[in-house]
């Protein structure tokens, strides 16, 4: 079974660059405190690393 990440948007996007906003949107997050589950693959890991200061990430099995 593949691992997954549980990603929660903890910080506001006010003051962030447009590129960071688009990355958060591509992760499936729209509002603060919203949580989504994403697959563990290199593309998602790269997106998470790009905006890690805005997110809370937990590993799910």
Please explain how this structure is put together.
With 61 residues, the chain is of the alpha+beta class. It has a single domain, classed as Ribosomal Protein L30, Chain: A (2-Layer Sandwich), CATH 3.30.1390.20. Helices cover 30% and strands 28% of the residues. It has helices at 18-26, 42-50, and strands at 4-9, 35-39, 55-60. It has a three-stranded antiparallel beta sheet, with no helix packed on it. The model has no long low-confidence stretch (mean pLDDT 95).
Strand content: 25-35%
CATH superfamily, please? Ribosomal protein L30/L7
Strand order, biggest sheet? 2-1-3
Q: Give the tally of β-strands.
A: 3
Low-confidence stretches: none
Question: Whole-Å distance between the termini?
Answer: 7 Å
Largest sheet: 3 strands, antiparallel
Radius of gyration: 11 Å
Shape: globular
CATH class: Alpha Beta
The DSSP helix count reads 2
Assembly form of the protein: single chain
Q: Mean pLDDT, as a whole number? A: 95
> What is the fold named in CATH at topology level?
Ribosomal Protein L30, Chain: A
Q: What structural class is derived from the secondary structure elements?
A: alpha+beta
Instruction: Kindly state the percentage of residues in helix.
Output: 25-40%
Order of helices and strands: EHEHE
CATH architecture: 2-Layer Sandwich
How many discrete structural domains?
A: 1
């Amino acid at each position: 079974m593949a691992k997954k990440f549980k990603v929660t948007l903890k910080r506001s996007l006010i003051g962030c660059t447009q590129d960071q906003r688009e990355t958060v949107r591509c992760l499936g997050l729209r509002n603060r405190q919203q949580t989504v589950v994403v697959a563990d693959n290199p593309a998602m890991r790269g997106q998470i690393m790009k905006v890690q200061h805005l997110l809370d990430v937990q590993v799910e099995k």
